[in-house]
Design goal:
306 residues, mainly alpha, three-stranded mixed beta sheet, 10 helices, 78% helix, 2% strand, globular
Length: 306
């Protein structure tokens, strides 16, 4: 049994945090699941780019759901405990979804490269077999990565304090309360997370390097604007996500600070999933057009019923 200590013991502040994160969570669910429904329901968005976006949105909704409900309950409950199995399950799901998102963002960068650098061969090179394989590979890779860390972490002994200075079962705060030697765990964390980050960032950088070459070859100013609009949102999401992951995990264990790390963890597990629907839809003409068609359809149905 572990106890999630959270941010503070001040009840008034906990109520404020409860309301704040409840609003963020509801916005996250509405935004991401709404985007999933939009992509599935609008035939104009039945393209690989939007299938990837649909999977990312579903992933973000699940990512936030793994962490936020338990955190919201703990803000108002006196009993902030979580069982050993519950903690392990939360970590397994949390790391799986986080790792999958890193791999999926790299796949999305490759998709944009194929679409922009070689558009005539796009339908052949990004066939259903290819993009489904990339999505499945992202999930398999995320699950394998998570299984390694979850198994390594919960093989340790926790014979001392059971108080986790965090709002969910993340790896660093659990290593901090273990009474076993955690050097191997630290090395696994550094090398595995570092390897995933390095590979995915290289894929993104190479893909966008070729995209930049394609943009420089374009004669149409309208074409350049469309490419910048499409790729700029993806690059923004990638930069924010990978920046926080690198700060959190790929650094010496001696530099861990529970308060700072808690804020960073909250940012990439709760805030980024809320921001992604905004980042990927506000600058995308196809998504905005699809949303407008839904609004017009609802308006027509309302008038018809009257």
């Amino acid at each position: 049994m572990f106890i999630l200590m959270g941010f503070t013991d001040d009840f008034d502040l906990q109520v404020i945090l409860f309301l704040l994160f409840l609003a963020i969570y509801l916005f996250t669910l509405i935004g991401n699941l709404g985007l999933v429904a939009l992509v599935i329901g609008d035939s104009h968005l039945h393209k690989p780019m939007y299938y990837f976006l649909c999977v990312l949105s579903f992933l973000d909704a699940c990512y936030s759901t793994v962490v936020t409900p338990k955190m919201l309950v703990n803000f108002l409950a006196e009993d902030k405990s979580i069982s050993f199995i519950g903690c392990a399950t939360q970590m397994l799901l949390f790391v799986t979804l986080g790792s999958t998102e890193s791999l999926l963002l790299a796949a999305m960068a490759y998709d944009r490269y194929v679409a922009i650098y070689d558009p005539l061969l796009y339908s052949a090179r990004m066939s259903p077999r290819v993009y489904v394989s990339l999505i499945v590979a992202s999930y398999v890779g995320g699950l394998a990565h998570s299984t390694i860390h979850t198994t390594a972490t919960f093989s340790l002994s926790f014979c001392g304090s059971n108080k986790i200075r965090h709002v969910f079962c993340d790896i660093p705060p659990l290593l901090a309360i273990s009474c076993s030697h955690t050097q191997l765990n630290q090395l696994l964390l550094f090398y595995f997370v570092g390897s995933i980050e390095m590979v995915t960032i290289v894929i993104v950088l190479v893909s966008y390097g070729f995209i930049l070459l394609a943009i420089l070859r374009m004669r149409s100013a309208e074409g350049r604007r469309k490419v910048f609009s499409t790729c700029g949102s993806h690059l923004t999401g990638v930069t924010i996500y990978h920046g926080t992951i690198l700060f959190m995990y790929v650094r010496p264990s001696s530099s861990y600070d529970s308060n700072h790390d808690m804020i960073v963890s909250i940012f990439y597990t709760i805030v980024i999933p809320m921001l992604n629907p905004i980042i990927y839809s506000l600058r995308n003409k196809d998504v905005k057009a699809a949303f407008q068609r839904v609004v017009e359809r609802l308006g027509f149905m309302t008038k018809a019923s009257i």
